[in-house]
Amino acid sequence: VQLVESGGGMVQPGGSLRLSCAASGFTFSSYDMSWVRQAPGKGPEWVSAINTGGGSTYYADSVKGRFTISRDNAKNTLYLQMNSLKPEDTALYYCARDRIDYGLGQSMDYWGKGTLVTVSS
Predict the structure, then answer these.
(1) Across the strands, what pairs with 67?
(2) Is pLDDT above 90 for 91?
(3) Which of 21, 31, 36, 44 pairs with 115 at a CA distance of 20 to 30 A?
(4) Do 105 and 51 contact (CB within 8 A), yes or no?
(5) What's the mean pLDDT in 8-20?
(6) How many CA atoms, within 13 angstroms, populate the side-chain half-sphere of residue 88?
(7) Sorting pLDDT into bands at 50, 70 and 90, what band is 41?
(8) Alpha carbon distance 49, 28 (integer Å)
(9) 65-79 burial by CB neighbour count: b if 16+ within 10 A, else e?
(10) What is the DSSP string of 37-92?
(11) Model pLDDT, residue 11
């Protein structure tokens, strides 16, 4: 299993970024997927999850209305569109595979190495 995130960078408050996660080594379309972030000096925070077909999505209250999770099963790729970014969104963002037989976004078994998002003026 390999998960490789990309798309991070530095952006001003109010700006946008789109993160991507390229998945390989497993049947991507058979797994729910999540994004998790970790801000400097803090513990991990679950951000968003999407089911196998993309029809069900969930978000942390802190990003609801600003972030959109999506997936392209034909390309084995997970996305996170982040709009109206705030300084408190600064974190390392990880793509993660949800464990089978757990609720959406409840538990993950594989993680990528992360992509850094910095929101600063």
Answers:
(1) 82
(2) yes
(3) 31
(4) no
(5) 98
(6) 5
(7) very high
(8) 14
(9) eebbbebeeeebbbb
(10) EE-TTS-EEEEEEE-TTS--EEE-TTTTTTEEEEEETTTTEEEEEE-S--GGG-EE
(11) 97
